[in-house]
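Chapter summary example.
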Amino acid sequence: MMIELSHKSPWIGDAHTFHLIDNGRLSPAKHTPTPVSEQSAFRKLYDRGDFPISVNHDAGAGGNKINWKVDIGKLDYHHYLPLFFSGLCELDEPYAFLARQGVRDMLASGGTKILPVVPQLIIPIKSKYKLMYSLFGTYCN
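The structure predicted for these 141 residues follows.
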């Protein structure tokens, strides 16, 4: 079943089309690239090559993964974790995948480095939920 909706979003800048997927939620069917002026800090820094990561395209072993060029435990969490969280608002690939997987990897191996950074994560998390609300009309995953 296909449902066409048009929605203007102040965070994305263009109208999007959505379709209804099996479980009843709306999902983006097509996406207009984000204008440069509205790109996240994550995207700008990734495009510039400032992150110590690359994508490992290994479909045989469960799909794409992140190759970390340095040990995750040696990263400056005050610098990198908020940037990865800001990337959670990305809709374009590979940025969306890199941000999600980067956050997962850093949280999994961060230990005591995470708690001092939590106040810096509030704004990127709020931005993610504002984006989801503007696109889907509800706070969703």
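To summarize the output: Residues 1-22 have pLDDT under 50 and may be disordered.
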